[in-house]
TrEMBL record:
EC numbers for this chain: 3.1.3.2
Keyword presence, Zinc: yes
Protein name according to UniProt: Purple acid phosphatase
Native organism: Miscanthus lutarioriparius
Domain Purple acid phosphatase N-terminal: 62-155
Keyword annotations of the record: Glycoprotein, Hydrolase, Iron, Metal-binding, Signal, Zinc
Catalytic function, reaction form: a phosphate monoester + H2O = an alcohol + phosphate
Signal peptide interval: 1-30
Enzyme kind, highest EC tier: hydrolase
């Protein structure tokens, strides 16, 4: 009798264990469309007299100051600014020792450019590359000599290495609305070391005649962050500024003049794809609106670039695009499909960790999936789980004037892990070669509240199942 009771207990225990295991599997495979509903008010652009757009005091004072990496290794920084009244000086003074411009001992002479767009003429746009910088070092810098001098500071990234911690902010489609200001304020409170920006900056082209004064206001708006830490720029569709009806036939004219990158700092260089190595990350920036078909320059470059990635030195492979490859929102549905078809198998073969996109004005995170088996005729067109595949994130939720994309398809597809039609920003905190913490922050929450978070394990060093909240 006791043997029979013991067998029954063991059977019941086994059933409980199996039920718990099934529940774990269901959670691990769960898809979540957040039930949170953002505020109902329209997305309103801040007025031109808002304090965030204020022109700095002083004659010909440098404005719209921003920095980005000047080389792949993080030992140079491109400083950019605008003088509105006259050309002035293109000189940057800088120093490790003193914030006083008169005591800065290092000096670099930069270049300047200017452009016309329909009825608009830009100010004098200056670019200056500070080279041979030390890693993990705070530098003070100043410009505007001869008129009104302004000074700022930045800290260079640490030397690239496999276990170097670093925290990225991730922002897309920011614009210059009241929601944009909330997004930027929340990011500043969360304290990243550099921003991965996935395209669509000023939304000047949403205004009559592509009002380029909105490029000026946007750059003054983000100066409070972009002058003190590097922003890694991705070109989006709102950077095209192609307007044949206005006689403007050159794509990317304002963006190309204003926002240099390591690839484009040299005269006459125009590509919008490039890479940088920051701490333990190799960041690859792709151009969704430049040619990427077979044997095009971007196609050739990416093939060579992926072969150069050294996962022993920089374990985390992060790719930035503008138009998402995986998105379950009806807005801009499948616009990134041709680039996915062209490059997805390369990223899976390279074991990329994360692909970040904007464009769709909502938030979504995928499971690790791939669709490389589909060849049009075999019918295998459903994305499948793949440990070698990246997580795909869409953060086109910065706060732009066009509003939120509140049209997710139903039902939620199996590849989608979490999605919500709210504004916000994300962060990626790399801890070492194996672990990084990814988090998305909703604007309506407190600064440090995580609305969606997941620990990511590195695809090269620890390819575990990691794509569940």
């Amino acid at each position: 009798m006791s043997n029979m009771l013991g067998a029954r207990r063991r059977l019941c225990l086994l059933q409980v264990v199996l039920l718990l295991f099934a529940a774990v599997l269901l959670v691990a495979d769960a898809c979540l469309t957040s039930e949170y509903r953002r505020k109902l008010e329209a997305t309103v652009e801040m007025p031109l007299d808002a304090d965030v757009f204020r022109v700095p005091e002083g004659y010909n004072a440098p404005q719209q100051v921003h920095i980005t990496l000047g080389d792949q290794e993080g030992t140079s920084m491109i400083v950019s600014w605008v003088t509105a009244n006259e050309l002035g000086s293109s000189t940057v003074m800088y120093s490790e020792a003193s914030p006083d411009p008169e005591k800065m001992e290092l000096c670099v002479e930069g270049t300047h450019t200017r452009y016309d767009y329909f009825n608009y003429t830009s100010g004098f746009i200056h670019h200056c590359n500070l080279t041979n910088l030390k890693y993990s070092t705070k530098y003070y810098y100043a410009m505007g000599f001869g008129h009104t001098v302004r000074s700022f500071c930045f800290t260079t990234p640490p030397m690239p290495g496999p276990d170097v911690p670093f925290k990225f902010g991730i922002i897309g489609d920011l614009g210059q609305t009241f929601d944009s200001n909330t997004t930027l304020s929340h990011y500043e409170a969360n304290g990243g070391d550099a921003v991965l920006y996935v395209g669509d900056l000023s939304y000047a082209d949403n205004h009559p005649l592509h009002d380029n004064t909105r490029w000026d206001t946007w750059a003054r708006f983000v100066e409070r962050s972009a002058a003190h830490q590097p922003w890694v720029w991705t070109a989006g569709n709102h950077e095209l500024d192609l307007a044949p009806e206005l006689g403007e036939l050159a794509p990317f004219k304002p963006f190309a003049h204003r926002y240099p990158t390591p690839r484009r700092f040299a005269p006459a260089a125009t590509p919008f794809w490039y890479s940088v190595r920051i701490a333990s990350a190799h960041v690859v920036v792709l151009a969704s609106y430049s040619a990427y078909g077979k044997y095009t320059p971007q196609w050739e470059w990416l093939r060579a670039e992926l072969a150069r990635v050294d996962r022993a030195a920089t374990p985390w492979l992060i790719v930035l695009v503008h138009s998402p490859w995986y998105s379950s929102n009806a807005y801009h549905y499948m616009e990134g499909e041709t680039m996915r078809v062209q490059f997805e198998r390369w990223l899976v073969a390279a074991k990329a960790d994360l692909v970040v996109a904007g464009h769709v004005h909502a938030y979504e995170r995928s499971h690790r999936v791939s669709n490389v088996a589909y060849d049009i005729i075999n019918g295998r067109c459903t994305p499948v789980r793949n440990r070698d595949a990246p997580v795909y994130v869409t953060v086109g939720d910065g706060g732009n004037i066009e509003g939120i994309a509140d049209n997710f398809t139903q039902p939620q597809p199996g590849y989608s892990a979490f999605r919500e039609d709210s504004f916000g920003h994300a962060t990626l905190e790399i801890r070492n070669r194996t672990h990084a913490y990814y988090a998305w922050h909703r604007n309506q929450d407190g600064d440090n509240v995580v609305a969606d978070g997941v620990w990511l394990t590195n695809r090269y060093w620890m390819p575990t199942d990691d794509d569940t909240s």
